[in-house]
Structures are given as structure tokens and as C-alpha cells.
User: Fold this.
Amino acid sequence: MSSLSIIVIMWSVVLIAGVAYAAPPGVKDLPSVDQLPTVAELPNPFVFNDGSPVRTRDDWTRRRQELLAAILYYQYGHLPPAPPSIAAREVSSKSIEALGAVEKEIVLSMADGRIEITVFLTIPAGKGPFPAIIRGDVCWKRLSEPIVANIIKRGYMLADFDRTQVAPDKNDRSRGIYVVYPEYDCAALAAWAWGFHRVVDYLHTRADVDKARIVATGHSRGGKAVLLAGATDQRIALTVPNNSGCGGAGCYRFQAKGSEDIAAILKNFPFWFHPRFRDFIGRVDRLPFDQHSLKALVAPRALLTTEALGDLWANPEGTQQTYLAAKEVFDFLGAGDRIGIYFREGKHEHNEADFNVLLDFADKVLFGRTVERRFDQLAFPDSPRAYSWKAPRPQASN
Assistant:
């Protein structure tokens, strides 16, 4: 875990809907929604802001920074840096004989205790190091014993935590990350992504963790947060959002019947997003990105989206659209086999079948193991693609 110095800075605050959002240090203003061009299809990620094309993989590194800057500025707000230090305290440790595992409760304390994250580690027997799966949905519920048993049987460690310890799941900026970092304008999804990063920090201090094989997953709003976490932390080897929909792995420009759109999500959960995002209600064609752009930020690391065909609100057909568009970037980077999508029958939940798919994909991309399951089968093969561009053939860098 790297340490960061604390710098005293001057910062400004804007009041939007009675809530204070700071202007983060070093962030330049981007064009207002009225100044942005209209783009009906999924925007081409291979074109720089100035209109010049991406030709080389070095070009993509620079273009990636442009996309990240826009996504954070308009949609999620900016993530604070890592704290200077994190203190880990083991609260309990017990053997789970039925699983052949040990469960530890660890409290991560930072910023003089103003932020604390409780992590429940379930560790397979043996010395390791073990690949680790991070999940931030303890605020919803702990995983069922069959799911945990399968994770352990497959040789993975589970690190389960409650993301709402970092920031509450309501319109309240009076505690947690917002008090510790008032100079940052992160909304809740960005705050929760920051929480995933802190668990990665901790796992990197453990000798029994395979640091090159860290997986992060989450469901629904937790899936939205985990996709952003994976896009903004290169230490996460595999990112797996489940049924994450609008604001996650879904699509703003392609709305299948019955799916949640930007107006609906901002009516119900405005605090998940930066207030600037409201400017795009009814004007999503002015967004300089769509969610394929966020997925592309994960490349060339691995990305799997798991979807339920009965979960229309999460826009599975739109998720297929952004999967295909993001795959163009993965292909450009020579990582086309590191992005996958999987559709199952059923409803909005994170179930045993979803975790079986996750573990199979992790075995494939992290260990090179042969698995029978395919991760490229489209549930909507007749759906017209929502973009006309293609990945260029990468040229050699100068």
C-alpha cells in the first residue's frame, strides 16, 4: 500500500439542491451540456476530444485519461486519494469446519477512525497465496453458505464488506468519506468504489493473498460501484458487475422496453451521481461517453458482466450493446478474450449460478484453465448494434 502526503489546499464549494459539492483540486472545468455535440450512437472511444484518431496503444493510454476525466466530471464525481495509512485490527477468528476454512473479522481504520470498514475474510485451508474475491454488499446481506462453500472449494478467498460504512446509501454528506475529504466531489457510487480500493490496499498487506489475482464483484447498485472501482484501480485483475443496469454495465442511449433510464434513476437516487449528471436528463445524446467507455477503462484487465434475462429494469439488451462496443477496445489492445458477458434466466439477484460463472471466468482468465462455459454468447443476436465505428488496426508506437 502506497502512502500519500497530505497537502493543505484551497478549495471552493458549490451548493446544488442544498448539498455542498466541492471543486476538487486540479480538476479543470469541461464543457457544459449545451456546449457538447449531439451524438446519437454510442460515442467512438477511438477519437480524441480534438477529433484526432487513436492509432497506437500509447494513444489509447492518453485517450483513456480523457474518457476517465469526462466520466468522473459529469457522472460520478472524483475519488479522493488513498489515506496516508490504514490500521487493521483483527476482531475475531474462527474455524469453519464444514467449509475447511477460517473466517476472520477485520476492522480497517483510517483518518483517525473517522472511516472504518469491517471486512469478513473467509480463507481456504493451506498456506496460499490465494486469489481473492472482494464483494461490497454486506449492507444487503452476507452470501449464502453454498456460495461461500463453492468459493472456498475452488481455492479462492472471500473478502466481504459493507460499502455503506464509507458513505451512506442516502442523501447525507455529513459523515464518512465526505467529512474526511470535503475537497472532493465524489457522489455515493464513487465513494463506494473508493471503499473497494481500500480493501485492495489491505489485501496487498497479506502474505496469503495472490496480489496478481484480485477479483471485485457486486450486485445491482453494488455492481455499479464495482464497475467504477475496477475502472479506476489497476490492481483489480477481474471486475464482475452483476445486474448493474443504469449507471453500471447498462446503456444510456439504448433503452430496451421496461428498462431504467437516467431520469428514473436520478429521481430515486440522485445522491449516487454528481449533480452535473442531471443536465443530461432528456439529453443523453450529449453525453461524451456511454457505459461502454467505462467498461473500456478496465482493459486490458479482465471484465465480466453477468445478467438476468428477467431483469428488464437492468436493461440486459442495452448491456449487450455496451459489451460489444467495449470489446472493440479490448480487441484493439489484444485482450479480446478478457471481456465476457453471460446471460441467465431469472430475476434480479446475485445467486449461486452467477458465482459459478464468475469462478469459471476467473479460472479461465486468471489461471489459463480450460472451462467448458462460453462467455461470448449473445442473448439478443438480432439486436442492431448501437454504433457504426470499429476498432482501428493498432499501429506501432513511435
User: Anything to note?
Assistant: Residues 1-18 have pLDDT under 50 and may be disordered. The first helix runs from residue 57 to 76.
